[in-house]
Specification:
Helix content is 46%, strand content 13%. By secondary structure, it is α/β, with parallel strands linked by helices.
Amino acid sequence: MSAPLKNDVLLRALLRQPTERTPLWMMRQAGRYLPEYRATRAKAGSFLAMCMNPEYACEVTLQPLERFPLDAAILFSDILTIPHAMDLDLAFEAGEGPKIGKPVRTAADVDALFVPDPAKELKYVVDAVALIRRELGGRVPLIGFAGSPWTVGTYMVEGGGSKTFARIKGMMYGDPKLLHRMLDVVTRATTDYLNAQVEAGAQAVMVFDTWGGALAPAQYREFSLQYMARIVHGLTRERDGRRVPVVLFTKGGGRWLAEMAATGADALGVDWTTDLADARAQTAGKVALQGNLDPCVLYAPPAVIREEVAKVLASYGHGHGHVFNLGHGIHPDVNPEHAGAMVAAVHELSPQYHR
């Protein structure tokens, strides 16, 4: 039996249930801005080695919770674990980001794809989830995650990061059926992967659609949103007698929030380019909202950080269903004390919105 949850404010907020304050966590909260993370990475030898070792993954997942009174742990992993498990030769090159040695560009490449078995090819992630959940001892809930099929697909086709997405958009316009076949495999793999995380102990899950905002509206619906909707419908939504909330996040997706809410997700991430009041109006109380402080605010002095936190809280306004977060991941060169100032400001200023 797992330990009872001592702090469930995040899970309640994601389900729009009453909370006494606004919960918070940070995207990339276990990351390079923390000296203790950098020390563990040096010990592990590489980013991928750290991801693939459940003990190291657990260690870095818990580090930010030792520093800050956060309301969730998020699994330390990467959105490219699925292509890695598909044997596409993933490597992380210093200063250059991920590289896919065997990109997917032809019908034969798509035919060769397979849905990895989470108990085999992705066992290291499942083991990390179980270990983190055990080590948390019910302190806060654990969030599992995956990349969206479109976002993961961009790396698979481009062979790495891209500014123009020329290859995958070329496939999208030139051979849409082929791209749909690829996205179908990634969607099935992602659904199985997230369900395995839930089975191992993840108490909420999030789908990161980092590059959905690069699409035109019709293409976003066809090549990103419909696949995320399929994942939402295929997920285990209850575990240990409790609802497992699902969060969707499309960076740059503010104009599609109403359509994202219609997928059946419990909550939506909102980046800093959309005002939370507008997001709340668009979604009409159907979902909780997560966000959305500009990560660059954390370069400012603590007094300014407090003012900007106050603006985000006021933007969402009174009522439940808000999870405070950054609008995207924390930057590697941020001073950890500035992250602490943000956390303290949310604790101090948010209770007034829940009375």
